[in-house]
């Protein structure tokens, strides 16, 4: 009889019969048991609360039947944790650890052991969320404030953000600053910038309609486009290693009305004249060599510093100093109105996450070494480079650099070049190989020992007894290019140089921060799931950590194995035909996917298609990414039940039919709904000549259950830091690879240094500095998939949906649930509508979020996707006890709101408006509030056992935005003015 049923029903019943598995009968060695929170008995109890008999029935009421994926995932059976670590070691040994002196923005470095152990490998540092809840994020914000201060001091500029994705994308963002500030559209790129930076900036310029040209900016004959010049990009030290005073050129550009951006090196800046003293407007670069391994390309914290007049045009996050209600100085995110989640398509950029964890590592590196230690490291690198230069010159070859810091451009004849490269291979050394047969490059770093230096001398000269020739070799210390201003004179960089004091400082900051090691972080649309220790361990294996991103593939066979296996797994889970790993964040994935669509449309002669439809229920970066890709954003409304308004979409499609390029659907939507009409919507877009972008931010509700490539997607990005367990790190790192259908494969990203299998003539270009993005953290996702296996991955999606619906059922008697699907169920997240409560009581979503801190919890997502709402996403990693405690806290808070409504407590003096309650506030000798201290601090009995104390009282956001204090220098200035 089965064959008589409609095909969709057959698929659904087959799915229910064969593909839903229960993990709890698995071996106790199974990693799946460690990752998924609820036990079998808890699952049954939660299903009963939801009013369904099984996970099968839950899915039947949640996901549209027509999109259910009914086949088993074609993914290897799971490994135990011990097996996984053994396997990753085997793969790591396939990589060859040559000594890489390639440079180009990537250098060997030493990770100080106290930073490795106490920060990089510490879940208290790698599991927190972006510090939107300032009162429980003071520790990591102080570390990021140190990062901003470090960058501004070393570059001699006024303000810096709290990190960028990498050097190349920072340069692209800097170009955007120039265009927004000057309202002009020509941008010039000096030919001596790093090639990956040039390529990334050119791609961005093309997408935004900016006229960009690669030129020799030092030539008198270069056209400076006087009337149209927005700015220029220079590099100092440049890609060949030369250090030049840019002051005259900077003055010339300013006279032409343009701004000057310079990519620079922070370590070099400790001993060479900083670019800010050359009157540049913006400095960009990477902090990688400050204690962060190369990792085959990342993650590394880029930086962007600028003159103060440009602060409101800065992309990314800014940490500033404000005050709490007690008047205590505290840190907070500053000028958030610039960001994509608020300004959408009018934002300064589409950046959603950056590299906070790596920025913290870099800032601690500077704290650990201090000003003299940093200068000593730089001086040692420069001294060894100078010694190598004189030896090479003594062998009869020419050093082309007049002044240099750590990099030499060596002129050699073809015979010499061949001999050098042969000897380099014998010593397992990588050099920079320039096109042609005249030049080689070598870049030194802090890891270079005397033996390494001796080997390099032999590689270049073929002998050990060359008499150095110092003729023309100029030492920076004796030149006008030497830095004369002091560095890092703030107390934080001077006070913690013994390991004891440094360890205590890191610990002091650590305990001020709330992470997953404290309790759940149920952030809707952000998916703060378990970052298992076994997944994290391989990232510090030297077999993976010490690989330069531009080594030959023959030296990165292990990495290629990981990339190939991960690509095959993602293809199987998503239904796409090809994966690109270059985009190193979700927002960059959106940008890359949209550019691929634009290139495809251009290839078929549809250049007029420039409209992007974005539902109001889409992820926050979508409209900003649309703008960044050079598209015009048109919004689609939602229905009262949270679905995309199909009628409104049809009207917009009819209106823009000839110009429609793409529609971006977040699925399930940020309204927490699996829209029943998704296949119809995709068909409508395709029938109108457009492409469909499925935002994969919520893929954690689909793995094993639905595949976006099957139900209509042409391209998706996947937030590996969400669905696939890369930790959030307090605001990054992240990875956002994209999957595409066959027709878009030729337009995927390519790279100017490392060949990919994409046709460069049709490619969208380059979207980040490294060819495979932040490759090192792909190990985390690979490990997660390998240990979960096909059934475990599917079970994770099922439990994520169950946990959400369980919380919805527990809370719906107390709060209005804003959206639900056709059958009354939600996807993996649930929205609490606070608007009516706000009208009745004066209590808003922010007050509830702050009061949750008194219960020892992190708030859900606030005011998104609907203002005065709370969006809760519990994830599959949380067990029933944790969900119940969170629900109990919210239910108790509802009672506290009712006390205000019933006038038991005044509107301006109650536990919600005064939350959170810090220890100093509670211990004050005078207590004037109408409620007790016990009610404030311990609202439920179990809170006394599991209390996480907020470090300060509620932060004054308005004061922080009106009084910009973004560095230690600003803080000192503000203190002196107050006195």
Automatic annotation (TrEMBL):
<dbReference type="GO" id="GO:0004375">
    <property type="term" value="F:glycine dehydrogenase (decarboxylating) activity"/>
</dbReference>
<keyword id="KW-0809">Transit peptide</keyword>
<feature type="domain" description="Glycine dehydrogenase C-terminal">
    <location>
        <begin position="796"/>
        <end position="917"/>
    </location>
</feature>
<dbReference type="GO" id="GO:0030170">
    <property type="term" value="F:pyridoxal phosphate binding"/>
</dbReference>
<dbReference type="InterPro" id="IPR003437">
    <property type="entry name" value="GcvP"/>
</dbReference>
<dbReference type="GO" id="GO:0005960">
    <property type="term" value="C:glycine cleavage complex"/>
</dbReference>
<dbReference type="InterPro" id="IPR015424">
    <property type="entry name" value="PyrdxlP-dep_Trfase"/>
</dbReference>
<comment type="function">
    <text>The glycine cleavage system catalyzes the degradation of glycine.</text>
</comment>
<feature type="domain" description="Glycine cleavage system P-protein N-terminal">
    <location>
        <begin position="33"/>
        <end position="460"/>
    </location>
</feature>
<dbReference type="GO" id="GO:0005739">
    <property type="term" value="C:mitochondrion"/>
</dbReference>
<dbReference type="InterPro" id="IPR015422">
    <property type="entry name" value="PyrdxlP-dep_Trfase_small"/>
</dbReference>
<keyword id="KW-0496">Mitochondrion</keyword>
<dbReference type="GO" id="GO:0019464">
    <property type="term" value="P:glycine decarboxylation via glycine cleavage system"/>
</dbReference>
<dbReference type="Pfam" id="PF02347">
    <property type="entry name" value="GDC-P"/>
</dbReference>
<feature type="modified residue" description="N6-(pyridoxal phosphate)lysine">
    <location>
        <position position="722"/>
    </location>
</feature>
<dbReference type="InterPro" id="IPR015421">
    <property type="entry name" value="PyrdxlP-dep_Trfase_major"/>
</dbReference>
<dbReference type="InterPro" id="IPR049315">
    <property type="entry name" value="GDC-P_N"/>
</dbReference>
<comment type="subunit">
    <text>The glycine cleavage system is composed of four proteins: P, T, L and H.</text>
</comment>
<comment type="similarity">
    <text>Belongs to the GcvP family.</text>
</comment>
<dbReference type="GO" id="GO:0016594">
    <property type="term" value="F:glycine binding"/>
</dbReference>
<dbReference type="InterPro" id="IPR020581">
    <property type="entry name" value="GDC_P"/>
</dbReference>
<keyword id="KW-0560">Oxidoreductase</keyword>
<keyword id="KW-0663">Pyridoxal phosphate</keyword>
<protein>
    <recommendedName>
        <fullName>Glycine cleavage system P protein</fullName>
        <ecNumber>1.4.4.2</ecNumber>
    </recommendedName>
</protein>
<dbReference type="InterPro" id="IPR049316">
    <property type="entry name" value="GDC-P_C"/>
</dbReference>
<dbReference type="Pfam" id="PF21478">
    <property type="entry name" value="GcvP2_C"/>
</dbReference>
